[in-house]
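Regression report. Comparing outputs from two consecutive submissions.

Submission 1:
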Amino acid sequence: MIQASLNGPFAKVDHPQVPATAAELAADARECVRAGAQAFHVHPRTASGAETLAADVTDEVVRTVKASQPYPVGVGTGAWIEGDTARRLDYVSGWSEPDFASVNLGEEGAIELIMRLNERGIPVEAGVWTVAEAEFLVASEITPSLLRVLIEPVELDVARAVDIVGEIHRVLDHGRVEVPRLQHGDGEATWVLLEDAARRGVDMRVGFEDTFLLPDGTQAQSNAELVRAAVEIAGGR
C-alpha cells in the first residue's frame, strides 16, 4: 500500500503545488489515486492557512477528501500544531470523520492521545522516529490497539538511514510487534528508505510532506508524480 502525504507543514511558499484548502486536497487525492495511492495523510488548515486540529475544520477537510475518492483519509496530530497536550486531547475528542490518525510516540502525551482516539473509534498509526521509541513501543501495552506502526526516522542522511530503520525493525521483530508497518523517510533519505521498504515488503508513504524531489533529484510537479515514482519502486504493485 502506498499512502500519499499531501501537504504536511508546508505551504505554497515552499512549493506552488502544495494543496492547502479542502478542495485542493480533494482534487490532489483524485490525481494520486490515478497514480496508485491507496490511503491519504493530510494536515487540515484554517481559512488563514494555519494548521489546526480543531474538530470542525478537521472533519470538514477529511469529509471533502473522502468524498473525492474511495480510499481512507487520516490526519496528523503533531505537537507543533497545537502544542498543549490538554488542548490536543480536547480537539480530537470532537473528531468524527478521520479514518485514522498518526501519533508521534516521542511527543508528550502520546499514550493519552492514542487512548483518546481509540475511545473515539479512530484507529492510530504510531509514529516511531528512533530506536528508543521502538523499544518504548515494545514495552508498552498499546500495540494490539494500533492500525499500524509508522517507521519514520526524520532528518537523517542517506548513509545512516537504512541502518537505523534496520535496527528499528529488529527491535519490533524481537518484541513480536505484529501489526502492519509503513515506512517512509524525509528529505534526502526519502527514496532510499522507500527502496528499503520495497525490499522488506512493507507499506510506504510519499508526498510533498516528505520531499519535493523525484528520485533523479529533479523537482516534482505534483504529489501524483511522487506517487508514480513510488509505485515504480514498489514494482508496479
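Submission 2:
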Amino acid sequence: MEVHVHGNIFLGRGVRLSQVEHALRPWLEYLDVDTLAEAHSLEREEPGIQFDPRERTVNICWSGEVGRSFHARLAEAFQNVGPLTEYASEVEVTYYPENGEDEFYQMFVGPTAEAIHEFRRQCVVEDIGAMLSRHLGKAEVDQVAALVSQLFDQDWAARKITGEHSTASSTVVPLHPRNKHLH
C-alpha cells in the first residue's frame, strides 16, 4: 500500500546528520537505503526526508509503497530520534490501502514522554478551541479548554502511578478520517 509521512522534527543543538541517520536506521533499512539523501519519495514533487542543520530540523514529506511491517519500523525510528529532539513535534502518517479506507495517524516525537504529553495537550486544546469558537463564546471555550487540561493532568498522574510514561519518546494516536490535516 502507499503511505505518506509528513511533518517536522525539531532537533537539539549539536545534532549531526550521522546521529539522525543512525536514529532513523529502522526506516532507512526498511527502504533498503543507507542515507537520508537516498530516501527518495515516490512523488517527485515531495522532498523526501531532509536534514537541515541550520534550522536544526528533519523535514519529512515522503511517500512510498510499504507493507504492514512499515508502521512498526517507523515507530522504532521515531523512538530512536526522540532523545535527539529539543521539544516535541507531530508527524502525520496516512496509509492508502487498496480497499480505499485510508488510515490516519499522528505520531508524536519528543525528548521525553512528558514533553510529548504536554505537546499533545496543547494540540488538543488548540483544536477544540478552534472548533468550538465557531459555535460558542470565549468563556465557554475557555471552560472546555480548562476541562481538557484537567483531563490531561489526570491522565499524566495515572501514567505516573503505572509507570507507563517513564521511557517513551514517541507515541502514536490513530485519527478519525474527519480529523485529517491537509497540507
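Expected: both submissions complete independently.
Actual: both completed, but the second showed a warning that disappeared on reload.
Relevant detail on submission 2: The chain has two domains: 2-112+169-179, 114-162.
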